[in-house]
Amino acid sequence: MAAQGVGTQAKNTRNESSQHFDDKVGNNWMKELMESLGEAAGTTGSQSDVYTVLRELSAKVENLEKAGNERPKVAFSASLFPSSQHRGPFNIGTTLIFTNVITNIGQAYNSGTGVFAAPVRGVYYFTFTCNSGTTGKVNAALLKNGQNMAVVIVKGNVDSMGSNSVILQLNEGDHVNIVLWRGNSIYDNGYRSTFTGVLLFPM
């Protein structure tokens, strides 16, 4: 009985020592975590500080998610025609109407007029591609409120291609469109002559 009592006592001592070690390690880990969070928040690392930091981080994440969902989404892409067609030459500069809409998120591009109207003030990226038609030459321009911003000039055989891109800062309501200058022609079969734009970020 005495031997058994000694064994039980030794076992309890080992369990208590093990528990004490685990508690010590756990406390040290928690202390380090609290200190790290406390330093990040400019505090002393108390438990209440940790909860405060976690609440603040959670609120920031929620605000970022909300801001991302509320951010305006604008993007469009359209080709000139859905099937093989030529357009031009004209006696005057003519706005090209890209009728075959592929994407129009935000509905800022008007496929009836060929004009993109900026729904929000921001920085936008535009690109356009032209395939020469029956004249074998293309001289087209991307206009912002009637002002020339980028051009495509192709002089070669029928079916020659050119493209250009530009980043523009637009105010709400600003117009962007593509004009084919007089004496030129353009060809499309659904994917050769295209007009694309996207909002990079609002301002």
How can the largest sheet be summarized? Answer: 7 strands, antiparallel
Tertiary shape = elongated
Residue ranges: pLDDT <50 for 5 or more in a row?
1-22
Average pLDDT confidence is 82
- The secondary-structure class comes to alpha+beta
What is the strand content? 35-45%
Number of helices: 2
Q: How do you describe this structure in short?
A:
The protein is α+β, with helices and mostly antiparallel strands and 203 residues long. It is built from two helices and 13 strands; from the N terminus they run H-H-E-E-E-E-E-E-E-E-E-E-E-E-E.
Structure description:
It is a single chain. With 203 residues, the protein is of the alpha+beta class. It contains two helices and 13 strands. A hairpin with a 4-residue loop joins strand 5 and strand 6. Helix 1 (2-41) packs across helix 2. It is elongated, with a radius of gyration of 33 Å.
Topology of helices and strands:
Elements: H1 2-41, H2 47-70, E1 75-79, E2 85-87, E3 94-95, E4 100-105, E5 109-110, E6 115-117, E7 122-132, E8 137-144, E9 147-155, E10 161-170, E11 175-180, E12 186-188, E13 194-202
Antiparallel strand pairs: 1-4, 1-13, 2-12, 3-11, 5-6, 6-11, 7-10, 7-12, 7-13, 8-9, 8-11
Keywords:
13 strands, single chain, 7-stranded antiparallel beta sheet, alpha+beta, 203 residues, 6-stranded antiparallel beta sheet, disordered N terminus, 38% strand
